[in-house]
Give the backbone structure.
Amino acid sequence: MEADKEISALAANTAVPFGQALRFWAKLGFISFGGPAGQIAIMHDEIVTRRRWVDEAHFLHALNYCMLLPGPEAQQLATYLGWLMHGVKGGLAAGLLFILPSFFLLAGLAWVYMEFGSLPAVAALLYGLKPAVVAIIVHAALKMGRKTLATPFLACIAVAAFLSLAVLHLPFPLVVGGAALAGWIAHQRKAGKITTATAAPDPANHTRSALWPVLAAGLVLWLLPMALVVFTVGTGSTLAEMGLFFTKAALLTFGGAYAVLPYVDQAAVTAHGWISRPQMMDGLALGEATPGPLIMVVTFVAFVGGFQSGEGPAALSGWLAALIVTWMTFLPSFLFIFAGAPYVEATRHLPSIAAPLKAVTAAVVGVIGSLALTLGPHTFMPEAQVDIAALALAAIALWLMERKGWSAPRIVVLGAIAGTALHLVT
């Protein structure tokens, strides 16, 4: 507890009442549309710019760490920021509230989907949400670029990251790792010119007594549900296979949802046959249309796979599979933050650590830009013809954010309303 208090004191504003923060995290869980880039943009706008709960330096340092981890970086960032302000209880509140609305929405929609068939009404929402999401992503890249690309070197890192993903299609971990290496090499070359450095506290003072309990608690929280599954339905059951696979996916897949989803698709559709390819595509559509991390698509995949596994009552099997898979997917994210964030904060002022992380931040600008480019053709040329209405909606949304200061949640609502209206009149 003392370590939590010491680390929380590093936040820009330690006077934020926990109840006020709790209400914000609950709200964020319902408005966090736009995938990782859009969700990061929302958190930056609300927490750093509007509320000033955390300063820019702490936010970017936390973001850099989360970008290097396997798993959903936006949810990990929310957990980190909650922990930064209020310790473990703040991290738990932020991380859980970030995913709970999405879990119940997607599991509920999956139940409706399996009971009553496909959901064509989603198309109207997606039509307006997609250009709004692209605008949010472009705005995030511009806003972060203006604040972080302070030198030609960092600008080159951003351009290189953009080209590496958009043109060369290099793996995301390689791009981030290359940026960190470039930042470290650049720092080493300038090391002789550095005359002062801010001393950082010894991370062992904060974490040595807490690291092993965190890891032990994580192991117990993984073993208990897996043991229950094995003893009730057996090691060869769909539920047990899902639990093991999604644990591995959570620990080994870097690069966020867009990197892990092909891996999930390969396992769920091809290797195990839990769901069909059309069902996977419908799940992706629903994942894009609901708030929360895009990786929450695994909740839909698990529900559908459990529902049609034939290993018990369909609806019950679906809900149990969704719960187990969601638990296994996000448990490592909490452990990464509670075990690693104290070390990261303790080394925040060390130039040898800060330089590579600044380069990673620059690379993130390019990564966000490449994401916008990737989504653009699917949004503005869905059938090889330019969709003027979608382009206009994206342009209006970007103008409202850049010039009028509209927040990402307002843009999401605008996109949903506009998409529905356009589908009603056409």
Remarks:
- The chain has 17 helices and no strands.
- The CA atoms of residues 215 and 335 lie 7 Å apart.
- The chain has a mean pLDDT of 81.
